[in-house]
Amino acid sequence: MTIILGGVYLTNEKLKQKHKEDLERLKAFRLMDDDFMTACFDGHPECVQLILRIIMEKPDLIVTDMKVQYYIKNLQKRSVRLDIFATDSKGKKYNIEIQREDKGAGAKRARFNSSLIDSKIMETGTDFDDLPETFVIFITENDVMGVNQPIYHVERVVKETGTAFGDEAHIIYVNGAYRDDSPLGLLMHDFACTNPNDMHYKILADKTRYFKEDERGVVAMCRIVEDLIDSEKKEIALRLLSQNILSREQIAESVGLDVEIVNILAESQN
Predict the structure, then answer these.
(1) Would strands 151-154 and 79-88 be described as parallel, antiparallel, or unpaired?
(2) For strand 2-5 and strand 93-99, is the pairing parallel, antiparallel, or unpaired?
(3) Please, are residues 9 and 2 in contact by the beta-carbon 8 Å criterion?
(4) CA separation (Å) from 161 to 147, 165, 167?
(5) Could you tell me if 170 and 153 are in contact, meaning their C-beta atoms sit under 8 angstroms apart?
(6) Could you tell me the pTM of the whole model?
(7) How do strand 151-154 and strand 169-175 relate by DSSP bridges?
(8) d(CA 24, CA 228)
(9) Beta strands 2-5 and 134-140: pairing type?
């Protein structure tokens, strides 16, 4: 039997090998990996609530609304995709970004996210004083500040007096490389953990275990892996098409896509 997957013809033997490779990739996934985090947290505000309670040091914080991979667009149609956008019971807004690369957590990225959130929640006729308090939180794999602190709070202050400016727009960097026995240190351990049995927080371990060990969860996650691989192939094909060096047939063979898919990509590019 032959199955078509992502434009590639697979025999039974190749399909089994591909499934085995997907399972190996799945074993290595962590909550620090954006797509795996999305799968684990989507529709589960209790996970985000746990994270915010620890980072904000507020054990009574209640998440009332939460979205993952949430797009916000400005007037110039420049959009940003927020990993997590949440609201608590007091109306405060939280943007949590999971960043493995330091360059994705730059100061101006934080500024841009904060400004877009303000523009999104500021309705026509609303008084500026009614803007809710906002927090842009980066959980980074490395210590981007480089001084070995578990967490960094960035606030605007009046330079001449050293007093807080009070605009209620906050930026927080969480050092994902930090380890100790504090709640935050244990949380960062769990974010970097591949084995749910080694995780400290049950709610995170249960979600991780579902997508790594439960049959339904594994099937769902393998589909996500396949979609990611397929998307990467299409992105490579589009770059090769823009270079106008290889034929469509050569591109199809190089990236492992059916030539009809490459033709569709070429037409969409035109």
Answers:
(1) unpaired
(2) unpaired
(3) yes
(4) 26, 10, 16
(5) yes
(6) 0.77
(7) antiparallel
(8) 15
(9) unpaired
Q: Which residue has the tokens 């299409």?
A: 234
Asked if residues 76 and 86 have their Cβ atoms less than 8 Å apart, the reply is no
Can you give the pLDDT at residue 205? 96
Residue closest to 258 by CA, chosen among 6, 12, 67: 6
Q: How far apart are CA 5 and CA 13, in angstroms?
A: 14
Q: Average model confidence (pLDDT) for the chain?
A: 85
Average pLDDT on 89-103 reads: 91
How would you class 136 by CB atoms within 10 Å of its CB: exposed for 0-12, middle for 13-18, buried for 19 or more? buried
Please name the residue that has the structure tokens 């906002």: 134
Cβ atoms 27, 194 nearer than 8 A: yes
The answer for residues whose C-beta is within 8 angstroms of residue 60's C-beta and 6 or more apart is 53
Residue 169 — φ and ψ, nearest 5°? Answer: -110, 115
Q: What long-range pairs does 221-225 form, CB within 8 A, spacing at least 24? A: 221/26, 221/29, 221/36, 221/39, 222/19, 222/22, 222/23, 222/26, 224/35, 224/39, 225/22, 225/25, 225/26
Pairing assessment for the beta strands 93-99 and 134-140 based on DSSP bridges: parallel
Cβ pair 205, 229 in contact under 8 A = no
**What's the pLDDT tens digit per position in 4-22?**
444 444 456 665 666 667 6
